[in-house]
Amino acid sequence: MNLLIFGYGMIAQRQYLPNMRKLARKAEPPIDLQVQCVDKGKPGCFEVESWEHEPAIRPEEIDKILILSPPNEHYANLAAIANRCASLGCAFPKIYIEKPIYLESERERWTELLAKHAGLEDRAFYIDHYRFKDALVWFQAHKAGTLGSIGKIHEIGLVSLEKQKFWNSAAFEQGYFLEHGCHLVSMMDRVFPGIAARQWTPQRTGDWRVWEQAGRPPLCKRDSACLSHLRMVGGDYPEFAAEVALTAVVGKGMLDAKVLHLGGENGSAQVWFNKGQLVVAATGQRPARMEIPTGNPYRAVAESIISVSTKPELLSPLTQGLAEQEKVIQIRRHLPAHAETYAVGETPREIARELARMGLQDIRIDLP
Questions:
Q1: Torsion 319-322-326-327 (CA) sign
Q2: Who wins on pLDDT, 97 or 165?
Q3: pTM, to two decimals
Protein backbone atom coordinates (compact mmCIF):
# COMPACT_ATOMS: atom_id res chain seq x y z
CA MET A 1 0.00 0.00 0.00
CA ASN A 2 1.44 3.37 -1.06
CA LEU A 3 0.52 6.21 1.30
CA LEU A 4 1.22 9.89 0.72
CA ILE A 5 1.07 12.28 3.70
CA PHE A 6 0.80 16.05 3.46
CA GLY A 7 2.18 17.59 6.67
CA TYR A 8 4.85 15.65 8.54
CA GLY A 9 4.20 17.24 11.92
CA MET A 10 3.57 16.09 15.47
CA ILE A 11 0.29 14.26 14.75
CA ALA A 12 1.80 12.37 11.81
CA GLN A 13 4.97 11.45 13.69
CA ARG A 14 3.46 10.56 17.08
CA GLN A 15 0.04 9.18 16.18
CA TYR A 16 -0.80 8.19 12.62
CA LEU A 17 2.46 6.72 11.33
CA PRO A 18 3.36 4.61 14.40
CA ASN A 19 -0.17 3.16 14.54
CA MET A 20 -0.35 2.52 10.81
CA ARG A 21 3.03 0.80 10.69
CA LYS A 22 2.20 -1.39 13.68
CA LEU A 23 -1.17 -2.39 12.23
CA ALA A 24 0.37 -3.09 8.82
CA ARG A 25 2.96 -5.42 10.35
CA LYS A 26 0.34 -7.32 12.35
CA ALA A 27 -2.15 -7.67 9.48
CA GLU A 28 -2.76 -11.12 7.98
CA PRO A 29 -1.10 -11.19 5.56
CA PRO A 30 1.20 -8.28 6.50
CA ILE A 31 0.68 -5.09 4.51
CA ASP A 32 3.68 -3.63 2.71
CA LEU A 33 3.16 0.01 3.73
CA GLN A 34 5.26 2.49 1.75
CA VAL A 35 5.05 6.10 2.96
CA GLN A 36 6.05 9.36 1.29
CA CYS A 37 5.64 12.75 2.95
CA VAL A 38 5.27 16.27 1.58
CA ASP A 39 6.38 19.11 3.87
CA LYS A 40 8.79 22.00 4.03
CA GLY A 41 12.02 21.84 6.01
CA LYS A 42 11.42 18.27 7.25
CA PRO A 43 14.03 15.49 6.76
CA GLY A 44 12.98 12.81 4.29
CA CYS A 45 10.08 14.84 2.89
CA PHE A 46 9.43 16.15 -0.59
CA GLU A 47 9.70 19.92 -0.31
CA VAL A 48 7.59 21.36 -3.12
CA GLU A 49 5.23 24.28 -3.56
CA SER A 50 2.59 22.02 -5.09
CA TRP A 51 2.35 18.26 -5.52
CA GLU A 52 0.69 19.09 -8.82
CA HIS A 53 4.16 19.66 -10.32
CA GLU A 54 6.21 16.98 -8.49
CA PRO A 55 7.37 14.37 -11.06
CA ALA A 56 8.94 12.10 -8.45
CA ILE A 57 5.54 11.24 -6.97
CA ARG A 58 3.38 9.33 -9.44
CA PRO A 59 -0.32 9.66 -8.56
CA GLU A 60 -1.33 6.47 -10.35
CA GLU A 61 0.87 4.54 -7.90
CA ILE A 62 -0.64 6.09 -4.75
CA ASP A 63 -3.43 4.21 -2.98
CA LYS A 64 -4.32 6.67 -0.22
CA ILE A 65 -3.51 10.23 0.78
CA LEU A 66 -3.62 11.63 4.32
CA ILE A 67 -3.77 15.44 4.62
CA LEU A 68 -2.41 16.53 8.01
CA SER A 69 -1.08 19.93 6.98
CA PRO A 70 -2.27 23.15 8.69
CA PRO A 71 -5.92 24.03 7.92
CA ASN A 72 -4.99 26.98 5.72
CA GLU A 73 -3.20 24.55 3.34
CA HIS A 74 -5.92 21.90 3.05
CA TYR A 75 -7.72 23.35 0.05
CA ALA A 76 -4.49 23.83 -1.93
CA ASN A 77 -3.47 20.25 -1.14
CA LEU A 78 -6.77 18.79 -2.31
CA ALA A 79 -6.86 20.99 -5.42
CA ALA A 80 -3.33 19.91 -6.36
CA ILE A 81 -4.28 16.25 -5.99
CA ALA A 82 -7.45 16.68 -8.04
CA ASN A 83 -5.77 18.67 -10.83
CA ARG A 84 -2.81 16.29 -11.10
CA CYS A 85 -4.99 13.19 -11.33
CA ALA A 86 -7.35 14.85 -13.80
CA SER A 87 -4.49 15.98 -16.06
CA LEU A 88 -3.09 12.44 -16.18
CA GLY A 89 -6.48 10.78 -16.51
CA CYS A 90 -5.92 8.51 -13.52
CA ALA A 91 -8.40 7.61 -10.79
CA PHE A 92 -8.40 9.58 -7.55
CA PRO A 93 -6.84 7.77 -4.58
CA LYS A 94 -8.81 7.76 -1.35
CA ILE A 95 -8.16 11.05 0.41
CA TYR A 96 -8.51 11.66 4.16
CA ILE A 97 -8.47 15.22 5.55
CA GLU A 98 -7.79 15.83 9.23
CA LYS A 99 -9.92 18.31 11.18
CA PRO A 100 -10.46 21.23 11.10
CA ILE A 101 -10.91 21.53 7.34
CA TYR A 102 -10.55 25.31 7.41
CA LEU A 103 -10.70 28.20 9.87
CA GLU A 104 -12.57 30.76 7.75
CA SER A 105 -15.64 30.00 5.66
CA GLU A 106 -14.56 28.32 2.41
CA ARG A 107 -17.48 25.98 1.81
CA GLU A 108 -18.39 27.49 -1.56
CA ARG A 109 -15.02 26.95 -3.22
CA TRP A 110 -14.67 23.47 -1.71
CA THR A 111 -18.09 22.58 -3.12
CA GLU A 112 -17.07 23.97 -6.51
CA LEU A 113 -13.90 21.86 -6.48
CA LEU A 114 -15.85 18.68 -5.70
CA ALA A 115 -18.36 19.48 -8.46
CA LYS A 116 -15.59 20.18 -10.98
CA HIS A 117 -14.01 16.72 -10.66
CA ALA A 118 -16.41 13.82 -11.15
CA GLY A 119 -15.85 11.09 -8.60
CA LEU A 120 -13.76 13.18 -6.21
CA GLU A 121 -16.57 13.58 -3.68
CA ASP A 122 -16.88 9.80 -3.34
CA ARG A 123 -13.14 9.45 -2.63
CA ALA A 124 -12.71 12.26 -0.09
CA PHE A 125 -13.29 11.73 3.64
CA TYR A 126 -13.20 13.92 6.75
CA ILE A 127 -11.38 12.73 9.87
CA ASP A 128 -12.45 13.76 13.34
CA HIS A 129 -10.74 11.32 15.67
CA TYR A 130 -13.19 12.15 18.48
CA ARG A 131 -15.84 10.15 16.60
CA PHE A 132 -13.58 7.12 17.11
CA LYS A 133 -13.27 7.41 20.89
CA ASP A 134 -14.07 3.98 22.37
CA ALA A 135 -16.29 5.47 25.08
CA LEU A 136 -18.35 7.31 22.48
CA VAL A 137 -18.72 4.21 20.32
CA TRP A 138 -19.77 2.21 23.38
CA PHE A 139 -22.31 4.83 24.47
CA GLN A 140 -23.86 4.98 21.02
CA ALA A 141 -24.41 1.21 21.12
CA HIS A 142 -25.95 1.34 24.64
CA LYS A 143 -27.68 4.71 24.42
CA ALA A 144 -31.28 3.49 24.61
CA GLY A 145 -30.78 1.58 27.84
CA THR A 146 -28.71 4.31 29.43
CA LEU A 147 -31.14 7.13 28.70
CA GLY A 148 -34.24 5.20 29.70
CA SER A 149 -33.73 5.99 33.39
CA ILE A 150 -33.28 9.79 33.06
CA GLY A 151 -36.31 10.65 30.88
CA LYS A 152 -36.44 13.15 28.04
CA ILE A 153 -33.30 15.25 27.69
CA HIS A 154 -33.67 19.00 28.23
CA GLU A 155 -29.98 19.93 28.57
CA ILE A 156 -26.76 18.84 26.90
CA GLY A 157 -23.36 19.92 28.15
CA LEU A 158 -20.26 19.37 26.01
CA VAL A 159 -17.03 19.85 27.95
CA SER A 160 -13.65 19.56 26.27
CA LEU A 161 -10.83 20.90 28.44
CA GLU A 162 -7.17 19.97 27.98
CA LYS A 163 -4.19 20.16 30.29
CA GLN A 164 -1.89 20.18 27.27
CA LYS A 165 -0.37 23.59 26.59
CA PHE A 166 -0.55 25.42 23.27
CA TRP A 167 2.24 24.86 20.79
CA ASN A 168 3.20 27.34 18.07
CA SER A 169 0.89 26.20 15.28
CA ALA A 170 -1.00 28.06 12.56
CA ALA A 171 -3.99 25.88 13.42
CA PHE A 172 -4.60 28.17 16.43
CA GLU A 173 -4.19 31.54 14.69
CA GLN A 174 -7.97 32.17 14.52
CA GLY A 175 -8.63 30.99 18.06
CA TYR A 176 -9.05 27.67 19.85
CA PHE A 177 -12.79 27.40 19.26
CA LEU A 178 -12.38 27.28 15.47
CA GLU A 179 -9.65 24.63 15.83
CA HIS A 180 -11.44 22.55 18.44
CA GLY A 181 -15.16 23.28 18.10
CA CYS A 182 -15.53 20.75 15.29
CA HIS A 183 -15.17 18.00 17.93
CA LEU A 184 -18.25 19.23 19.75
CA VAL A 185 -20.42 19.22 16.63
CA SER A 186 -19.05 15.89 15.43
CA MET A 187 -19.56 14.17 18.80
CA MET A 188 -23.13 15.43 18.97
CA ASP A 189 -23.83 14.10 15.49
CA ARG A 190 -22.29 10.76 16.42
CA VAL A 191 -24.55 10.33 19.46
CA PHE A 192 -27.64 11.86 17.84
CA PRO A 193 -27.29 11.36 14.05
CA GLY A 194 -28.45 14.34 12.01
CA ILE A 195 -28.40 16.79 14.91
CA ALA A 196 -25.60 18.85 13.34
CA ALA A 197 -27.94 19.79 10.50
CA ARG A 198 -30.44 21.37 12.92
CA GLN A 199 -30.58 25.03 13.86
CA TRP A 200 -28.54 25.81 16.98
CA THR A 201 -29.72 29.21 18.20
CA PRO A 202 -27.51 31.32 20.51
CA GLN A 203 -29.12 32.13 23.84
CA ARG A 204 -28.02 33.90 27.05
CA THR A 205 -25.33 35.67 25.03
CA GLY A 206 -24.71 37.94 28.01
CA ASP A 207 -23.34 34.85 29.82
CA TRP A 208 -20.95 33.87 27.03
CA ARG A 209 -17.30 34.22 28.02
CA VAL A 210 -13.94 34.22 26.25
CA TRP A 211 -10.46 33.89 27.76
CA GLU A 212 -6.92 34.18 26.47
CA GLN A 213 -4.14 32.15 28.03
CA ALA A 214 -1.21 34.17 29.28
CA GLY A 215 2.16 33.40 27.68
CA ARG A 216 0.87 31.62 24.60
CA PRO A 217 3.19 31.13 21.58
CA PRO A 218 2.92 33.92 18.98
CA LEU A 219 0.84 31.96 16.43
CA CYS A 220 -1.83 31.17 19.04
CA LYS A 221 -4.15 34.16 18.83
CA ARG A 222 -7.66 35.15 19.92
CA ASP A 223 -9.61 32.80 22.21
CA SER A 224 -7.90 30.08 24.27
CA ALA A 225 -11.07 29.04 26.11
CA CYS A 226 -14.74 29.90 25.84
CA LEU A 227 -18.16 29.26 27.34
CA SER A 228 -21.26 29.42 25.12
CA HIS A 229 -24.99 28.66 25.41
CA LEU A 230 -27.31 27.58 22.60
CA ARG A 231 -30.81 26.22 22.13
CA MET A 232 -32.22 23.56 19.82
CA VAL A 233 -35.77 22.44 19.06
CA GLY A 234 -36.19 18.79 20.09
CA GLY A 235 -38.42 17.96 17.16
CA ASP A 236 -38.74 14.29 16.26
CA TYR A 237 -35.91 12.99 18.45
CA PRO A 238 -37.68 10.65 20.92
CA GLU A 239 -34.96 11.24 23.54
CA PHE A 240 -35.46 15.04 23.60
CA ALA A 241 -37.84 17.43 25.28
CA ALA A 242 -39.52 20.10 23.12
CA GLU A 243 -36.48 22.35 23.56
CA VAL A 244 -32.93 21.42 24.50
CA ALA A 245 -30.33 23.77 25.96
CA LEU A 246 -26.74 23.25 24.74
CA THR A 247 -23.77 24.41 26.80
CA ALA A 248 -20.30 24.19 25.24
CA VAL A 249 -17.11 24.61 27.27
CA VAL A 250 -13.70 24.38 25.60
CA GLY A 251 -10.26 25.36 26.84
CA LYS A 252 -6.59 24.48 26.66
CA GLY A 253 -3.81 24.55 29.23
CA MET A 254 -6.00 24.14 32.32
CA LEU A 255 -7.11 20.55 33.15
CA ASP A 256 -8.07 17.32 31.41
CA ALA A 257 -11.82 16.75 31.25
CA LYS A 258 -13.81 15.55 28.25
CA VAL A 259 -17.42 14.92 29.22
CA LEU A 260 -20.84 14.67 27.61
CA HIS A 261 -23.48 15.71 30.16
CA LEU A 262 -27.13 14.84 29.50
CA GLY A 263 -29.72 16.39 31.82
CA GLY A 264 -33.10 14.67 31.76
CA GLU A 265 -36.49 15.00 33.40
CA ASN A 266 -35.66 12.23 35.89
CA GLY A 267 -31.92 12.57 36.36
CA SER A 268 -28.68 12.93 34.43
CA ALA A 269 -26.00 10.90 32.66
CA GLN A 270 -22.35 11.74 32.10
CA VAL A 271 -19.98 10.08 29.64
CA TRP A 272 -16.33 10.69 30.58
CA PHE A 273 -14.54 9.91 27.33
CA ASN A 274 -10.87 9.87 28.27
CA LYS A 275 -11.48 8.48 31.77
CA GLY A 276 -13.71 5.67 30.47
CA GLN A 277 -16.58 6.09 32.89
CA LEU A 278 -20.37 6.38 32.68
CA VAL A 279 -22.24 8.00 35.57
CA VAL A 280 -26.04 7.78 35.72
CA ALA A 281 -27.83 9.68 38.49
CA ALA A 282 -31.58 9.05 38.52
CA THR A 283 -33.57 11.47 40.69
CA GLY A 284 -33.67 10.32 44.31
CA GLN A 285 -31.04 7.63 43.81
CA ARG A 286 -27.32 7.44 44.39
CA PRO A 287 -25.25 7.81 41.21
CA ALA A 288 -24.41 4.52 39.48
CA ARG A 289 -20.93 4.30 37.96
CA MET A 290 -19.73 1.97 35.25
CA GLU A 291 -16.35 1.53 33.64
CA ILE A 292 -16.59 1.78 29.85
CA PRO A 293 -13.96 1.28 27.13
CA THR A 294 -11.31 3.87 26.47
CA GLY A 295 -8.32 3.84 24.15
CA ASN A 296 -6.34 5.72 21.52
CA PRO A 297 -8.77 7.02 18.87
CA TYR A 298 -5.93 7.61 16.41
CA ARG A 299 -5.37 3.85 16.29
CA ALA A 300 -9.02 3.34 15.36
CA VAL A 301 -8.69 5.97 12.62
CA ALA A 302 -5.57 4.22 11.34
CA GLU A 303 -7.45 0.90 11.26
CA SER A 304 -10.12 2.41 9.08
CA ILE A 305 -7.71 4.14 6.72
CA ILE A 306 -5.55 1.12 5.99
CA SER A 307 -8.62 -1.16 6.14
CA VAL A 308 -7.37 -3.51 8.83
CA SER A 309 -10.70 -3.09 10.59
CA THR A 310 -13.07 -0.91 8.60
CA LYS A 311 -15.51 1.32 10.47
CA PRO A 312 -17.23 3.11 7.59
CA GLU A 313 -19.86 4.73 9.77
CA LEU A 314 -17.13 6.71 11.57
CA LEU A 315 -15.31 8.01 8.50
CA SER A 316 -17.45 10.98 7.50
CA PRO A 317 -17.90 12.17 3.91
CA LEU A 318 -15.98 15.36 3.24
CA THR A 319 -19.26 17.17 2.57
CA GLN A 320 -20.40 16.42 6.13
CA GLY A 321 -17.15 17.84 7.49
CA LEU A 322 -17.73 21.05 5.54
CA ALA A 323 -21.22 21.41 7.00
CA GLU A 324 -20.01 20.79 10.54
CA GLN A 325 -17.20 23.36 10.28
CA GLU A 326 -19.64 25.96 8.94
CA LYS A 327 -21.72 25.46 12.09
CA VAL A 328 -18.62 26.02 14.24
CA ILE A 329 -17.87 29.23 12.32
CA GLN A 330 -21.45 30.45 12.83
CA ILE A 331 -21.21 29.88 16.60
CA ARG A 332 -17.78 31.54 16.73
CA ARG A 333 -19.26 34.77 15.32
CA HIS A 334 -21.30 35.20 18.51
CA LEU A 335 -18.36 35.00 20.92
CA PRO A 336 -17.80 38.31 22.74
CA ALA A 337 -14.87 40.47 21.69
CA HIS A 338 -13.66 41.11 25.24
CA ALA A 339 -11.42 38.40 26.66
CA GLU A 340 -10.07 37.90 30.15
CA THR A 341 -6.83 36.05 30.84
CA TYR A 342 -5.89 32.91 32.73
CA ALA A 343 -2.58 31.29 33.59
CA VAL A 344 -1.52 27.80 32.53
CA GLY A 345 -3.09 25.32 34.93
CA GLU A 346 -5.77 27.77 36.07
CA THR A 347 -9.51 27.18 35.54
CA PRO A 348 -11.56 30.41 35.20
CA ARG A 349 -14.20 30.66 37.91
CA GLU A 350 -17.09 30.98 35.41
CA ILE A 351 -16.11 27.64 33.89
CA ALA A 352 -15.80 26.05 37.34
CA ARG A 353 -19.27 27.32 38.26
CA GLU A 354 -20.79 25.98 35.05
CA LEU A 355 -19.25 22.55 35.61
CA ALA A 356 -20.59 22.51 39.19
CA ARG A 357 -24.05 23.51 37.95
CA MET A 358 -24.03 20.48 35.62
CA GLY A 359 -23.07 18.26 38.55
CA LEU A 360 -19.53 17.63 37.32
CA GLN A 361 -17.86 17.90 40.71
CA ASP A 362 -15.89 14.72 39.92
CA ILE A 363 -13.94 16.84 37.51
CA ARG A 364 -11.62 17.64 40.39
CA ILE A 365 -10.08 14.16 40.19
CA ASP A 366 -8.52 15.26 36.91
CA LEU A 367 -6.66 18.17 38.50
CA PRO A 368 -2.87 17.77 38.63
A1: positive
A2: 97
A3: 0.92
Residues 64/307, Cβ–Cβ less than 8 Å: no
> How far is the C-alpha of 127 from the C-alpha of 101, rounded, in Å?
9
Q: E strand or H helix at 6, and its extent?
A: strand 2-6
Tell me the three-class secondary structure of 236-270, residue by residue: CCCCEEEEEEEEEEEEECCCCEEEEEEEECCEEEE
- Is the separation of the CB atoms in 105 and 328 below 8 Å? no
Model confidence pLDDT, tens digit, residues 76-102? 999 999 999 999 999 999 999 999 999
Pairing of strands 288-291, 277-282: antiparallel
* Residue among 225, 103, 250, 106 at smallest CA distance from 169: 103
Helices (H), the chain: 10-11, 17-26, 71-88, 107-116, 134-147, 176-191, 297-305, 318-332, 349-357
Give the residue among 92, 104, 331, 358 at the shortest CA–CA distance from 226. Answer: 331
First to last CA, the chain: 43
